[in-house]
Design goal:
By secondary structure, the protein is mainly α. It has a domain at 1-45. It is built from 4 helices and no strands. The longest helix has 36 residues, at 32-67. It starts with a helix and ends in a 5-residue tail after the last helix.
Length: 88
């Protein structure tokens, strides 16, 4: 996925530059905005894997913390619903 995105960056830059150049004829935008957007997309592609890994790790830590609370374990003691999911 990262390689596909990296191959599309020149296309993104070209389309963005043409778009902002055409809009720039009316004085509404600047073509440098296309370069900034392309650089931002490149940065997201580079950091994407790390961001996903950190999000998953944070979710796992939060879930482990919630399930480790004493009141969540006490609520399931002796309950047949908890035993059916292996928490008794």
């Amino acid at each position: 996925m990262t390689y596909l995105g990296a191959m599309l960056l020149p296309v993104t830059l070209a389309v963005g530059a043409v778009r902002y150049w055409l809009i720039g004829l009316t004085g509404a935008a600047h073509p440098a905005s296309a370069v900034v957007r392309c650089a931002g997309a490149c940065g997201v592609l580079v950091a994407y894997r790390w961001i996903v890994e950190q999000t998953v790790a944070a979710t796992n830590t939060l879930t482990h913390g919630i399930l480790g609370l004493p009141w969540s374990q006490a609520a399931c003691s002796g309950s047949s619903a908890c035993c059916s999911v292996g928490r008794c």
